[in-house]
Amino acid sequence: MGISDVIACFINDILESEQGCAELKRAELAQRFKCVPSQINYVISTRFSPEHGYIVESRRGGGGYIRISRVQLGCRQLLMHAVNAVGDEIDPNTARAFLSNLLAAEAVDEKSVHLMSAALGDNTLRCLPPKYRDMARACIFKQMLLNFVRE
What we know:
mainly alpha, Phenylalanyl-tRNA Synthetase, Chain B, domain 1, 3-stranded antiparallel sheet, globular, single chain
């Protein structure tokens, strides 16, 4: 298990014990795991992002902190959270992460995830120049998610 996995497990344990919300100090975590603070940033940005179902707030400086909250919403609210978190562009890996989180939360079913994955894949969007695919993917994904909200 790599250092990133160890740090992610530690943060998950804190989130479990604190009912889904943890306030952490980047420097203290770096010292605890004998790593640089940028390693902590990497773990948080890759494992605790909106597409994984988290809200991260950060305050820099000596008294700074990182507050990580697990999004615990109903299906409709979770879908709207995803719509708002997608942004103007989304790559295939990030779209898959969103879909995995929505499936785990039972906001969408497995069949829908497979259909959306196919529609959002680069193979489907190959008729577009590569520089426009992430923008088109975001627009399509948001419309699909909004369709679930309307159901």
